[in-house]
Amino acid sequence: MTIFDEEAEHYDKWYETKMGAHADKVETECAFRLFKVEPGMRILDVGCGTGNFSLKLAQQGALVTGVDSSREMLEVARKKAKQKKLDIIYKEMDAQKLGFSDDNFDAVLSMAALEFVSDYLKMISEMFRVCKKGGSILVGTINRDSAWGKLYQQVGYQEPTSVFRHAHLRTPAELRKVNSEALVEIKECLFIPPDLSEADINLAQEEKYSRYTSGGFFCALWKKL
Fold first, then answer.
1. How many CB atoms lie within 10 A of CB 158?
2. Total domain count for the chain?
3. Main-chain phi, psi angles of 198, to 5 degrees
4. What is the mean pLDDT of each run of 10 residues along the chain (225 residues)?
5. Cβ atoms within 10 A of the Cβ of 198, count?
6. Which residues pair with 91 in a beta bridge?
7. How far apart are CA 225 and CA 219, in angstroms?
8. Domain span holding position 180
9. Rg of the chain over CA atoms, in angstroms?
């Protein structure tokens, strides 16, 4: 059993809240400004969870394989793909030891999973290994140096049952040092603070806060040389 098995049943309820829907929207837009999907691309979604991003990739015509260490999260992902009539392959797998051959996928992506692996450098190395030369590798993760990062660190310390007790948050500066010669760009998003009133959760506020604060989430894009 993994730390996410017990979270699987209610994990997606976050996206049903106004803040969760906003976070999903801006994080998705941030990722797709960097990560270009073309129909027929073979894409690996690492740490796919309940399939939130796998579905978005498949809806754009990509041939998607999603992997996660949580069997329960994968069961939810399979049900969602079936409901939407999307042919996505899901496999139980450790993100730090991907069971695929070298140069296997056109692109490799991971959203909101890096913070939950013990060795993030090993995970990124594996993502590079299974990606074809010239392909894109994208990682989206919580920014430790942000209001959101501080919140999740507090939750992790204060709530014994929270998955964030197991999180290791990173910063844009840390990822900028990883395979720096292959790094294309890093973009931040989710600038609004987590304690903003529900009435003020909108893109106008997102734009306002982006002028003077760090994003709670960021995406890093590399091209395999």
1. 10
2. 1
3. -60, -35
4. 61 87 96 95 96 96 96 93 96 96 97 93 97 98 95 72 79 96 98 96 97 97 97
5. 9
6. 67
7. 19
8. 5-223
9. 17
